[in-house]
Amino acid sequence: MLIDTHCHLDDAAFDADRDDIARQALRQGIAKLVIPAVARSNFDTVIAICNQHENCAYALGIHPMYVNSAALDDIEVLRSYVQHNNPVAIGEIGLDYFANNPKNAKNTVSNNNFDLQSYFFTEQLKIAKQYDLPVILHVRHAIDDILKQLRKHQVVGGIAHAFNGSFQQAEQFISLGFKLGFGGAMTYSRALKIRELAVNLPLSAIVLETDAPDIPPEWLGQRGRNSPLEIAKIAQVLADLRQLNITEVLEITGANALKVLPKLSHLYTLPKVLH
User: Fold this and answer.
1) What is the pLDDT of residues 188-207, one digit of tens each?
2) In the CATH scheme, what is the code of domain 2-266?
3) Count of CB atoms situated within 10 Å of the CB of 262
4) Using CA of residue 254, residue 145, residue 165, residue 65, what is the dihedral sign?
5) What is residue 247's predicted lDDT score, i.e. its pLDDT?
6) Cα 171 vs. chain centroid, distance in angstroms?
7) What per-residue string of b and e applies to 73-105 under the rule 16 or more CB within 10 Å gives b?
């Protein structure tokens, strides 16, 4: 089963062809697209998209790079949304220490504050624990601190999105019930560290993702618009790297996604592929 566990189909980059992409994904056998929210302002948008397309499912959360534009009571708003809706996870949440580094100022979406990031992250972990929901994590340059908080606030598990840590850090996530997201970054021949992880980690710990429209695969070029429709070719790269049959990779990574995000199968009927 082919599942894109992380794509931002609500992004403005898809305004012209969003519905067409969702329909094409279904025709191409992509069973599910998981769309994580990034701020209170797009909760309603991701819910509406997923209500319109049966092959889409949403997560709700406040991204660490958007906390400066968030209000403190957004936490209570999130709790209310979770209570009255059916998200498959709390996400995208986490910490981002790359964007806060002055050396990386040109890459900064907003000049986030570490303490504010930590507040929103831990409060959202509490919501995930309260409602027994997995979390979809943003972990850029902050893995050790995220693992520390996960040990303190023991959620049911989730996905470490765009994982690029060490093998030892990967093992710690796995021990806490997490799967690791691999996508476009893995397709670059120069991405030796990520490719080594993709080959040597247990396949049972890996889920596939695009992070569309971001992290485009090598064949699109670094400035290309990524799309959920690239997930099949990303899966093939993983199969080639591991020297496995693509069918086996799809079966196992799909099962991994359903295991770590159980509402994908429990709350949403998996659609029949259109021919």
Assistant:
1) 999 999 999 999 999 999 99
2) 3.20.20.140
3) 17
4) positive
5) 97
6) 19
7) ebbeebbebbeeeebbbbbbbbbbbebbeeeee
